Amino acid sequence: MLTTADFLQYTQWSGIATLVFAALTVLGLIFKWGIRFRLVGTTGFMLVLTGGLFALSLVPLSRTVIPGAVRYSLIYDNGSTQAVIAIAPNITPSALEATLRQAASNLYSYGRLGSKNDNYLTIRARTLIHPEPGLTVPLYLGQVKRTLTQREDPQMAVEIYPEKFAQLPKAAA
């Protein structure tokens, strides 16, 4: 995974390329080259690219890794207070708890909007089961609630539904 130091290095190289294109653009305008307007566009693009790389060098792009967490897919996120992740049906309760904690950390953002009544992000974990051929049923195995106001939430509430685990298909031996 790329680090902020990598993006800073890319920013430096992109900045040098931007200066080269700017110099070529000035020469093209002075000597009325046929590609002078293309050089103006290229220089503008390089300025935008350099600015984007610089922004990425300031913001850490790291994900939290919680031991015991399994892979999940984000399947619903309203950008505010609710999200749903999909997990495999063979997950254990301890792995589900770790996965919910990891999802709560990874999905936290300062840009999420809370309301007056609900200033918490609720992430629900679900899997799909097939009780009979041709029928697929979503089964919610747990949820986590975390505050939207703090990056590190000591009051994070993880709920696991043990009665739902009983409905999961047994693994073939």
Automatic annotation (TrEMBL):
The chain crosses the membrane at residues 12-31, 43-61. It comes from the Bacteria. The keyword Transmembrane applies. InterPro entries: Uncharacterised_Ycf51. This is Ycf51 family protein. Keywords: Membrane, Transmembrane, Transmembrane helix.
